[in-house]
């Protein structure tokens, strides 16, 4: 085959794939934090347009991608799928390694796959503004892009410590026309309350979520938007895997293993769910592997239980793998993977044995990232580099076992905004971190009590 | 047509286009700075492998692209050509605007089109090291990438003020394995001499060139490499325009105007020369437009004369448009366009009326850059934004004249490393600058005396 397989604009998928249609069991219900009863679409109406709520609870297998969204997808989609021949040579494997590259999107990651339809549905529902939170800024810039395309105002509550440390991400959002404030801010009650207690609060994702939710809930013209975890977000990301299925056909191959990094779950789900479908149908035995950082081992060391999506305990209760809603992961460079919980869909599939999980330390991950960059040219984001490392480990294991495997991973973003992390690695300043079991145990003791 | 036209790996051009074969007059000779006589290939042998010297003086129309280079090109080439429909709507034009996007290369610009073959030919010639200079870092990172692919050591002399101001570019080069030193450095005689006189020297491109040339000239295993200006560099960049010719056929269109930004000339030549060929042949009347910054108006306010390529007067004498080798352009954000001279080939074609030139101020350019980013999604590099502005001006002029034109421009790179410049623009801190005529006149009085 050629170095990469490209598809034409006309081959952008016409539907997203909804795994709920094929799961062995229906998704566990989402519970109202006050009543402990399953939430209804009406409960979510102040936050999301009804079209997105319908997708959140949809059970049909294929959901049409609106024409207007496909037109914007065409600015960078279909994305190329590469055969990583130069990487294979560099590590001396007999396995065939493929990667799907999502870093060519205008915002530099897979996130616009969902920010574009989210902005579209909000526009159709007559909303004028979208409020969201962002940590490192990857999601914030994708949403700013989506809002800009549809003439919506975007308000981004950016965790204050990131706002100060990552000015380039803030500037990118502003270049797209978004309003960005450091969180906690003076713009919301939640923010002001925190600032009264601690004017120098560095902020947290939990606080930023509270601010964005309050902003959306208190303004008629405004919705709230999320970049991962929820069903409709994962649904939009399946455009990645659906394209891969076509590209694998052209490559005349099929993966034995599909690998994605895993924080909130949209990255893994995006590339993996269409392959999980074949596995559930029994036509393939492909393993789907979630790779997470050892310092935030949600799937590998967490428990499967109802928990809050945020630290401030404002969200509905989700049945998911969790380290506890007030667990604070170490400050590793892959900021996008520092989440205490996990998408409920990924969690349930993991619980049922249809997805595997592995955890790695960041120095090993950065070592693999550089091997990749020097072989294939692309400088990967630290998050995506977890998938690269997982693929290299998989290939080496196959070599040891005398096997040849087809390995596909999701290279979800580039690392141009993460060069300080590479500098730390090259200068020997990068350290590994594993939380003591006791810290995780303590956080898990504070899980909400739910009678299922 | 579709939003973008993509080609397959197998459609990567098999030859570069050498415009020397079609120019109305042969290129003016390059002169030895000591003797004032035309230089010979042997004069250049200490600096470049003979295969590149042969390309520098070649006269055949098509020069084969080695298979190994085409394989590496396939990591990002062929690059997409877009129909900028969303931009057309945003500015309300009736013209058809197309752009070729080169920012998807691993280093983020068109520069790897020449760094890859340069590294390849050096490898084939048995060289172990390449020395080069870099200002803002765009070329340095492309060369670091090329060297990494062929297992060569890269030594980059980076202008000290940029080394301090643009750490991310330095880190990217190091991630690819290059050795980067701030110039002036202790590693060369030229550097030490400057440091003795001024330990705090901020450096300059002129000094960095001297260091890299000395490094290459004094080490048997080392070559020197340039990122623009020279004939072989422009030759390699024609892969851009050759692809565009194919993509225009698929779009069933042909440009009335082709636009590129212009500093050393490789950007404009890359997209423009294959179209100049059709114009010389008389089959088309396409206008080729070089866009330069008003603060470095080489083509629009310089003279066509023999001059040094560097400030330190070490290079051979080139017949080119120049503002004088010791002219210091204002510190605009488009660092890649701050060059006193111009490629001899572009200069000669401009002199003969086959290329036009326009100059714009940077605030207007950044305004157009943001219009583009919010319509098409891609955040453009400040250099490339000059071409965007030129295209928008061209479209508006056509609208005023009641005409419909097909306009093609080269979007040569992304602006992820230039967000501070966007921040300056959005905060109103960006200013325009035009040098007084007297400053240019003074610099031109110091041109070397050459009897032609």
Verbal overview:
In chain A, 41% of the residues lie in helices and 16% in strands. Chain A is α/β, with parallel strands linked by helices. Chain A has two domains: 15-38 and 56-65 and 111-231, 3-Layer(aba) Sandwich (Rossmann fold); 76-108 and 238-444, Rossmann fold. In chain A, the strands form four sheets. Chain A has a seven-stranded mixed β-sheet with strand order 1-4-5-15-10-11-14, with helices on both faces. In chain A, strands 8-7-6-9 form a four-stranded parallel β-sheet, sandwiched between helices. The model of chain A has no long low-confidence stretch (mean pLDDT 95). Chains A and B meet through α6, α8, α16 and α18 of A and α6, α8, α16 and α18 of B.
Low-confidence stretches of chain A: none
Q: How far is it from the N-terminal to the C-terminal residue of chain A, by CA?
A: 52 Å
Number of domains of chain A: 2
- Rg of chain A (C-alpha, Å): 21 Å
Kindly report the oligomeric state of this protein: homodimer
Major β-sheet annotation of chain A:
7 strands, mixed
Mean pLDDT of chain A: 95
The CATH topology name of the largest domain in chain A reads Rossmann fold
Q: Give the overall silhouette of chain A.
A: globular
Structural class of chain A: alpha/beta
CATH C-level label of the largest domain in chain A: Alpha Beta
Largest contact between chains: A-B, 45 and 45 residues
Which strands sit side by side, in order, in the main sheet of chain A?
1-4-5-15-10-11-14
- The percent of residues in helical segments of chain A reads 40-55%
- Count of distinct strands of chain A: 15
Report strand % of chain A: 15-25%
What is the second-level CATH architecture of the largest domain in chain A?
A: 3-Layer(aba) Sandwich
Count of runs of 4 or more consecutive helical residues of chain A: 19
